[in-house]
Write a structure and sequence with these properties.
194 residues; alpha+beta; 2 domains; 8 strands
Protein backbone atom coordinates (compact mmCIF):
# COMPACT_ATOMS: atom_id res chain seq x y z
CA UNK A 1 0.00 0.00 0.00
CA UNK A 2 2.83 2.43 0.89
CA UNK A 3 4.53 1.57 -2.40
CA UNK A 4 1.42 2.48 -4.37
CA UNK A 5 1.05 5.77 -2.53
CA UNK A 6 4.73 6.57 -3.06
CA UNK A 7 4.56 5.66 -6.77
CA UNK A 8 1.30 7.60 -7.17
CA UNK A 9 2.85 10.65 -5.50
CA UNK A 10 5.96 10.46 -7.69
CA UNK A 11 3.76 10.12 -10.80
CA UNK A 12 1.73 13.18 -9.78
CA UNK A 13 4.90 15.21 -9.12
CA UNK A 14 6.28 14.16 -12.51
CA UNK A 15 3.11 15.26 -14.27
CA UNK A 16 3.13 18.57 -12.40
CA UNK A 17 6.76 19.17 -13.39
CA UNK A 18 6.05 18.40 -17.06
CA UNK A 19 2.94 20.59 -17.02
CA UNK A 20 4.90 23.44 -15.45
CA UNK A 21 7.65 23.14 -18.05
CA UNK A 22 5.16 23.23 -20.92
CA UNK A 23 3.30 26.17 -19.37
CA UNK A 24 6.39 28.27 -18.69
CA UNK A 25 8.14 27.46 -21.97
CA UNK A 26 5.12 28.51 -24.04
CA UNK A 27 5.21 31.69 -26.14
CA UNK A 28 1.65 32.52 -25.14
CA UNK A 29 0.51 34.88 -22.46
CA UNK A 30 -0.04 32.95 -19.22
CA UNK A 31 -3.65 32.72 -18.08
CA UNK A 32 -5.24 34.72 -20.88
CA UNK A 33 -8.52 36.16 -19.64
CA UNK A 34 -11.42 36.37 -22.10
CA UNK A 35 -11.63 40.11 -21.37
CA UNK A 36 -7.91 40.91 -21.85
CA UNK A 37 -7.32 42.97 -24.98
CA UNK A 38 -3.91 42.77 -26.66
CA UNK A 39 -2.53 45.57 -28.82
CA UNK A 40 -2.68 45.54 -32.61
CA UNK A 41 -0.69 48.01 -34.75
CA UNK A 42 -2.97 50.85 -35.88
CA UNK A 43 -6.11 49.26 -34.44
CA UNK A 44 -7.88 49.03 -31.08
CA UNK A 45 -6.76 46.19 -28.83
CA UNK A 46 -8.39 42.80 -29.42
CA UNK A 47 -9.36 40.02 -27.05
CA UNK A 48 -8.83 36.45 -28.23
CA UNK A 49 -12.49 36.17 -29.24
CA UNK A 50 -12.43 39.47 -31.13
CA UNK A 51 -9.12 38.62 -32.84
CA UNK A 52 -10.59 35.28 -33.96
CA UNK A 53 -13.65 37.06 -35.35
CA UNK A 54 -11.68 39.94 -36.93
CA UNK A 55 -8.64 37.96 -38.14
CA UNK A 56 -9.14 39.59 -41.55
CA UNK A 57 -8.18 42.93 -39.92
CA UNK A 58 -5.56 41.57 -37.53
CA UNK A 59 -3.54 39.67 -40.15
CA UNK A 60 -2.93 42.59 -42.57
CA UNK A 61 -2.13 44.90 -39.63
CA UNK A 62 0.67 42.56 -38.53
CA UNK A 63 1.91 41.88 -42.07
CA UNK A 64 2.09 45.61 -42.84
CA UNK A 65 4.63 46.06 -40.03
CA UNK A 66 6.63 43.08 -41.37
CA UNK A 67 6.81 44.87 -44.74
CA UNK A 68 7.81 48.10 -42.97
CA UNK A 69 10.68 46.16 -41.39
CA UNK A 70 11.68 44.83 -44.81
CA UNK A 71 11.88 48.43 -46.07
CA UNK A 72 14.50 49.22 -43.43
CA UNK A 73 18.19 49.06 -44.40
CA UNK A 74 19.84 48.95 -40.97
CA UNK A 75 19.93 45.55 -39.25
CA UNK A 76 18.96 46.95 -35.83
CA UNK A 77 15.94 48.76 -37.30
CA UNK A 78 14.89 45.62 -39.18
CA UNK A 79 15.10 43.53 -36.01
CA UNK A 80 13.37 46.07 -33.76
CA UNK A 81 10.50 46.57 -36.20
CA UNK A 82 10.03 42.83 -36.71
CA UNK A 83 10.21 42.22 -32.96
CA UNK A 84 7.21 44.50 -32.44
CA UNK A 85 4.92 42.08 -34.36
CA UNK A 86 6.74 38.72 -34.39
CA UNK A 87 8.20 36.40 -31.81
CA UNK A 88 10.28 33.23 -31.55
CA UNK A 89 10.71 31.19 -34.72
CA UNK A 90 8.83 33.70 -36.88
CA UNK A 91 11.08 36.56 -35.74
CA UNK A 92 14.21 34.54 -36.47
CA UNK A 93 12.98 33.34 -39.88
CA UNK A 94 11.83 36.76 -41.12
CA UNK A 95 14.90 38.59 -39.79
CA UNK A 96 17.26 36.11 -41.46
CA UNK A 97 15.27 36.34 -44.71
CA UNK A 98 15.66 40.13 -44.83
CA UNK A 99 19.29 40.25 -43.72
CA UNK A 100 20.12 37.44 -46.16
CA UNK A 101 18.56 39.42 -49.01
CA UNK A 102 20.70 42.43 -48.05
CA UNK A 103 23.87 40.32 -47.96
CA UNK A 104 23.28 39.18 -51.53
CA UNK A 105 23.74 42.68 -52.94
CA UNK A 106 21.55 44.44 -50.46
CA UNK A 107 19.86 47.74 -50.64
CA UNK A 108 21.57 50.91 -49.59
CA UNK A 109 18.37 52.89 -49.30
CA UNK A 110 14.73 52.11 -48.80
CA UNK A 111 13.24 50.97 -52.09
CA UNK A 112 9.64 50.06 -51.40
CA UNK A 113 6.37 51.66 -50.41
CA UNK A 114 3.43 49.42 -49.53
CA UNK A 115 0.09 50.82 -50.68
CA UNK A 116 -2.25 47.97 -49.76
CA UNK A 117 -2.34 44.47 -48.29
CA UNK A 118 -5.46 42.49 -49.17
CA UNK A 119 -6.32 39.09 -47.78
CA UNK A 120 -7.45 36.63 -50.42
CA UNK A 121 -8.39 33.03 -49.55
CA UNK A 122 -7.83 32.74 -45.82
CA UNK A 123 -8.97 30.30 -43.15
CA UNK A 124 -8.57 30.60 -39.39
CA UNK A 125 -8.71 28.05 -36.60
CA UNK A 126 -8.35 28.73 -32.91
CA UNK A 127 -6.33 26.67 -30.44
CA UNK A 128 -6.79 28.26 -27.01
CA UNK A 129 -5.31 31.78 -27.44
CA UNK A 130 -3.43 30.94 -30.66
CA UNK A 131 -4.90 31.60 -34.09
CA UNK A 132 -3.79 29.23 -36.86
CA UNK A 133 -4.20 31.21 -40.07
CA UNK A 134 -3.79 29.71 -43.54
CA UNK A 135 -3.49 32.96 -45.44
CA UNK A 136 -3.12 34.17 -48.98
CA UNK A 137 -2.62 37.87 -49.50
CA UNK A 138 -1.70 40.34 -52.19
CA UNK A 139 0.68 43.19 -51.58
CA UNK A 140 0.41 46.20 -53.86
CA UNK A 141 3.30 48.59 -53.67
CA UNK A 142 5.94 50.59 -55.45
CA UNK A 143 9.45 49.20 -55.70
CA UNK A 144 12.32 51.40 -56.87
CA UNK A 145 15.41 50.34 -58.79
CA UNK A 146 17.97 52.98 -59.79
CA UNK A 147 16.09 55.31 -62.15
CA UNK A 148 12.69 53.63 -62.42
CA UNK A 149 9.82 52.40 -60.27
CA UNK A 150 7.66 49.29 -60.54
CA UNK A 151 4.13 48.98 -59.25
CA UNK A 152 3.91 45.42 -57.98
CA UNK A 153 1.05 43.18 -56.99
CA UNK A 154 2.72 40.07 -55.58
CA UNK A 155 0.65 37.29 -54.01
CA UNK A 156 1.85 35.23 -51.05
CA UNK A 157 0.56 32.17 -49.21
CA UNK A 158 1.72 31.16 -45.75
CA UNK A 159 0.71 29.33 -42.63
CA UNK A 160 0.77 31.76 -39.71
CA UNK A 161 0.49 31.26 -35.99
CA UNK A 162 -0.66 34.42 -34.24
CA UNK A 163 -0.76 34.63 -30.44
CA UNK A 164 -0.65 37.21 -27.67
CA UNK A 165 2.92 37.74 -26.40
CA UNK A 166 3.98 40.50 -23.99
CA UNK A 167 0.63 42.30 -24.26
CA UNK A 168 0.47 42.35 -28.06
CA UNK A 169 -0.67 40.13 -30.91
CA UNK A 170 2.39 38.71 -32.66
CA UNK A 171 3.16 36.27 -35.43
CA UNK A 172 4.82 33.35 -33.64
CA UNK A 173 4.98 30.94 -36.58
CA UNK A 174 5.54 31.70 -40.26
CA UNK A 175 5.82 29.11 -43.02
CA UNK A 176 5.91 30.63 -46.50
CA UNK A 177 4.16 28.29 -48.94
CA UNK A 178 4.08 30.22 -52.22
CA UNK A 179 5.08 33.50 -53.86
CA UNK A 180 3.48 34.54 -57.14
CA UNK A 181 5.03 37.52 -58.91
CA UNK A 182 3.01 37.19 -62.14
CA UNK A 183 1.20 40.48 -61.52
CA UNK A 184 4.43 42.44 -61.23
CA UNK A 185 2.92 45.63 -62.57
CA UNK A 186 4.22 48.36 -64.79
CA UNK A 187 7.43 50.34 -64.93
CA UNK A 188 7.64 54.14 -64.96
CA UNK A 189 10.44 56.67 -64.46
CA UNK A 190 11.22 57.68 -60.92
CA UNK A 191 10.53 61.32 -60.08
CA UNK A 192 13.59 63.57 -60.24
CA UNK A 193 15.03 64.71 -56.92
CA UNK A 194 16.92 67.92 -56.22
Amino acid sequence: MRERLLLGGMFALGLAAIGGFVLFSSDREPGVSPTTAFSVPGKPGMTVDVAHELFYQLTPALLLVVYEAFAETEEAAIYDTLESVTHGDALEFLYLERVGAMAGGGLEEADQTIHEISLLETQVRRDDATLEIDASWQVIGTVGHAEHLHVRGNTYSAELLVAPVDGAWRITGFELLDVNRDAAGETFLAPETN
